[in-house]
Backbone:
């Protein structure tokens, strides 16, 4: 992100509610960096280092607009997280885009709506996050 990109964030006043993103990743430095990048874009970001923390956050907040999940964490995979989420909170899986963060070029088949490769530049990361949020905005929002 160049200095011009950073400056537009401080001058931008958006009257619409902030979009909410949950990031699940066991690497604190990646969590901090991704949180900063997305907050500079005006998003509200919650972070968790494991599924236990993620479920605690999900039980406290309104449904997020996007969930980003590290594909390979120390004690679980993104697939494990998604399967548990499907069992415990199926309405989230049905209505919120879930996207894997990975260094792999491909991910196993799942109910995730896609993946974002790690180590891409910040502007590309933000563009992909926004694309997935828009995808989720087209999903039904009713819990009925």
Residues:
């Amino acid at each position: 992100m160049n200095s011009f990109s950073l400056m537009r964030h401080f001058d931008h006043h958006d009257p619409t509610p902030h979009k909410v993103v949950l990031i699940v990743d066991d690497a604190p430095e990646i969590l901090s960096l991704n949180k900063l990048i997305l907050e500079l874009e005006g998003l509200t970001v919650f972070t968790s280092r494991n599924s236990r923390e993620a479920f605690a956050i999900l039980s406290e907040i309104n449904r997020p607009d996007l969930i980003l999940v590290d594909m390979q964490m120390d004690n679980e995979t993104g697939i494990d997280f998604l399967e548990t989420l499907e069992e415990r909170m199926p309405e989230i899986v049905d209505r919120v885009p879930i996207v894997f963060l990975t260094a792999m070029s491909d991910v196993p088949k799942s109910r995730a709506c896609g993946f974002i490769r790690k180590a891409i530049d910040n502007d590309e990361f933000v563009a992909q996050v926004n694309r997935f949020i828009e995808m989720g905005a087209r999903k039904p929002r009713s819990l009925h």
